């Protein structure tokens, strides 16, 4: 995750904490989804950015996970996400993010 | 009004491993952070030779010796072994070696900024003399060398950026101002390389199409570089600077920017200028991006691959008045990503692909080939960015499923039929839609396809001025013929009107009388 985004998330994470803030990822690649999920929960595993060694423990989901999907107006989901849902490896993406959430999220 | 046609396309690559090592942003940043970087030391072992670059199948597709679909049949990795004939010259252009490319940089320099070692130039002379696009006056300028010691002094003083061939310092690009960051040596080296690669592409285009350079009346440059000084950082007009070195004395021009989508925007501008009758022959041209050389080098080196981003790309496309033969840029086919379109991938694809086709009463399957961001997949995959063109073709196929044109199980077949493997270097604007135009033109002229969609997309957030996405698309189609019939009708109509007017006049005269 790029350093500027890490800085923004760090600031927001510290301001609101895991009870008030949810991270929703849209990554198309399972590896980068996992990396992003780890960064906002356990801290930046590459030790390159502001979140290195900062375990924010934020709840993190992929937009394709059912928990998020059911909260979105089906019409909007159909217009904005359905195409990518068909194209992407949903199982791998949601599995990668879920794994990090279950391991490192504080909620 | 007739639509404009695509009269030809030139594509070149310059294999520049030393520029990659010296000036690619990834390497520059690494050098700043840790001059003794293990990556930089190891990277040198991963640089390809010119012969290896020539034998790289995607490059042979780019310059037109292979068809994009041929790539699908060549087993990956493409960088291993010699899977295709290593040819320098191609149907659309050539792959120029780095030493000769330095001479092209010297040629196009008008401010005595590029200095090359006189001994090095003498060694190069026999090859430069043989180049079909180098004229005797060009050669005279190209052989204007400097003393090696003078070059070394400038480089050591930090007032010039070095041009190496391996360990040998063969030249430099001098700073154009002492304190202005926009004219510092590094920037001048970047801009000179962009200009030189664009000049080479345009010269190839003119030669291939047999076009008199004097017949070009407008040039649109569409790279992602900025030239100017500290008071006008992106002042511009690479276009005229390029045309000047291609004999386009009757042309004016300007630059169009839009990140990777720049060339697609520029082609639409060109088509509009021609269709409106403002200009007859408009060239859209773009040179390579030095900064992007070796952009994913760390991943390539870490994974044991050669540094695959070792070439600058260049292209030039000639858009002209309808000749009744060449494929048209269909004037009613533009797909636009508007400010209000939304930035989700689906919103983008709907705006760029589905909407224009719906408007024209066409199905997604009616487009024989789509040209999207045509990056070579084995460059982007090791860096975690996946196979970009295939991802795009899958999105188009998914739209076809949503529109009930095909079944979900047919997505792979749709991708294979309407897509193609990526074959262009990751040079931002270079792979974006435009690499396929030469092939599309040929396939249409050969009657193998009738319609291709060219899609350009741009990531505007990189400039931190907006978070909006950008993209624009258009159809290239078989020429429907000139509207001569309409011309004949016009003549007939004029006669009719004249005769009617005469009758009225006669009646009026009669009435009065």
Summarize the SSE layout with pairings.
The complex is a heterodimer of chains A (107) and B (513).
Chain A: H1 3-16, E1 23-25, H2 30-41, E2 60-62, H3 66-69, H4 74-80, H5 82-87, H6 90-104
Parallel strand pairs in A: 1-2
Helix pairs in contact in A: 2-6
Chain B: E1 5-15, H1 17-23, H2 25-33, H3 38-43, H4 50-54, H5 57-62, H6 68-72, E2 93-96, H7 98-108, E3 114-116, H8 118-130, H9 136-142, H10 148-157, E4 160-165, E5 168-174, H11 185-209, E6 218-221, H12 238-243, E7 252-255, H13 262-275, E8 281-286, H14 297-302, E9 311-320, E10 328-329, E11 335-336, H15 345-360, E12 369-371, H16 377-380, H17 388-402, H18 411-418, H19 437-445, E13 451-458, E14 470-477, H20 484-512
Helix pairs in contact in B: 1-2, 7-9, 7-11, 17-18
Task: Describe, in plain words, how this protein is organized in 3D.
The complex is a heterodimer of chains A (107) and B (513). By secondary structure, chain A is mostly helical. Chain A has one domain. Chain A contains six helices and two strands; from the N terminus they run H-E-H-E-H-H-H-H. In chain A, strands 1-2 form a two-stranded parallel ribbon. The longest helix of chain A is centred in the C-terminal third of the chain and has 15 residues, at 90-104. Chain A is globular. Chain A starts with a helix and ends with a helix. Chain B has 513 residues and is α/β, with parallel strands linked by helices. Chain B has one domain (5-113, 175-482): 3-Layer(aba) Sandwich (Peroxisomal Thiolase, Chain A, domain 1), CATH 3.40.47.10. In chain B, a hairpin with a 2-residue loop joins strand 4 and strand 5 (168-174). In chain B, helix 7 crosses helix 9. Chain B is globular. Chain B starts with a strand and ends with a helix.
Query: Proportion of β residues of chain B?
Result: 15-25%
| CATH architecture level-2 label of chain B | 3-Layer(aba) Sandwich
Instruction: Report the helical percentage of chain B.
Output: 40-55%
The SS-based structural class of chain B is alpha/beta
Counted beta strands of chain B: 14
The outline of chain B comes out as globular
Please state the average pLDDT score of chain A: 94
Number of helices of chain A: 6
Shape of chain A: globular
Q: Which residues of chain B sit in consecutive blocks of at least 5 with pLDDT less than 50?
A: none
Gap between N and C termini of chain A: 22 Å
Question: Strand order of the main beta sheet of chain A, please?
Answer: 1-2
Question: What do we call the CATH topology of chain B?
Answer: Peroxisomal Thiolase, Chain A, domain 1
How large a portion of the residues of chain A is in β-strands, by DSSP E?
5-15%
């Amino acid at each position: 995750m790029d350093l500027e985004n890490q800085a923004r998330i760090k600031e927001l994470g510290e301001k609101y904490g895991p009870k008030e803030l949810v991270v929703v990822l849209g990554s198309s690649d399972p590896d980068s989804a996992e990396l992003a999920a780890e960064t906002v929960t356990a801290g930046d595993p590459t030790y390159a950015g502001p979140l290195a060694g900062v375990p924010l423990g934020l709840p993190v989901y992929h937009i394709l996970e059912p928990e998020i999907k059911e909260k979105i107006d089906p019409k909007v989901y159909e217009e904005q996400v359905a195409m990518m849902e068909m194209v992407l490896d949903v199982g791998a993406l949601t599995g990668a993010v879920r794994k990090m959430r279950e391991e490192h999220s504080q909620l | 009004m007739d639509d404009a046609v695509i009269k030809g396309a030139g594509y070149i690559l310059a294999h520049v491993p030393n520029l990659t090592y010296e000036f690619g942003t990834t390497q520059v940043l690494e050098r700043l952070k840790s001059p003794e970087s293990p990556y930089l030391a190891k990277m040198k072992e991963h640089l390809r030779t010119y012969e290896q670059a020539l034998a790289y199948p995607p490059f042979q597709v780019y310059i037109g010796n292979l068809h994009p679909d041929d790539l699908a049949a060549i087993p990956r990795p493409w960088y291993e072994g010699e899977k295709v004939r290593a040819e320098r010259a191609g149907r659309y252009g050539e792959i120029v070696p780095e030493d000769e490319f330095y001479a092209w940089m010297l040629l196009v320099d008008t401010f005595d900024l590029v200095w090359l070692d006189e001994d090095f130039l003498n060694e190069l002379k026999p090859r430069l003399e043989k180049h079909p696009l180098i004229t005797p006056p060009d050669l005279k300028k190209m052989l204007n060398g400097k003393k090696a010691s003078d070059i070394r002094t400038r480089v050591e003083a930090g007032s010039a950026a070095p041009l190496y061939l391996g360990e040998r310092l063969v030249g430099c690009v001098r700073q154009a101002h002492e304190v202005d960051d926009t004219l510092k040596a590094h920037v001048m080296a970047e801009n000179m390389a962009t200009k030189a690669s664009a000049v080479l592409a345009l010269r190839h285009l003119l030669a291939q199409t047999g076009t008199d350079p004097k017949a070009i009346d407008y040039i649109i440059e569409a790279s992602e570089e900025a030239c100017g000084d500290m008071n006008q950082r992106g002042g511009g007009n690479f276009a005229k600077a390029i045309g000047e070195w291609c004999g386009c004395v009757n042309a004016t021009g300007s630059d169009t920017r839009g990140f990777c989508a720049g060339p697609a925007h520029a082609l639409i501008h060109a088509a509009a200028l021609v269709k409106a009758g403002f200009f007859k022959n408009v060239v859209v041209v773009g040179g390579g991006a030095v900064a992007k050389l070796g952009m994913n080098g760390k991943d390539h080196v870490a994974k044991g691959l050669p540094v695959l981003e070792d070439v600058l790309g260049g292209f030039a496309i000639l858009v002209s008045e309808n000749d009744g033969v060449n494929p048209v840029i269909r004037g009613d086919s533009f797909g636009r990503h508007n400010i209000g379109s939304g930035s989700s991938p689906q919103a983008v694809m709907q705006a760029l692909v589905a909407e224009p086709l719906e408007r024209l009463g066409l199905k997604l399957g009616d487009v024989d080939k789509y040209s999207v961001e045509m990056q070579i997949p084995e460059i982007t995959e090791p860096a975690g960015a996946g196979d970009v063109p295939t991802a795009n073709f899958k999105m188009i196929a998914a739209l076809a499923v949503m529109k009930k044109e095909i079944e979900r199980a047919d997505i792979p077949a749709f991708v294979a039929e309407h897509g193609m493997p990526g074959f262009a270097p990751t040079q931002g604007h270079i792979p974006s839609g435009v690499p396929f135009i030469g092939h599309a033109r040929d396939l249409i002229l050969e009657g193998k396809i009738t319609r291709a969609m060219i899609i350009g997309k741009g990531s505007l957030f990189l400039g931190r001025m907006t978070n909006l996405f950008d993209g624009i698309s258009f159809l290239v189609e078989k020429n429907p013929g000139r509207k001569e019939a309409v011309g004949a009708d016009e003549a007939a109509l004029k006669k009719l009107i004249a005769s009617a007017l005469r009758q009225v006049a006669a009646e009026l005269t009669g009435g009065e009388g």
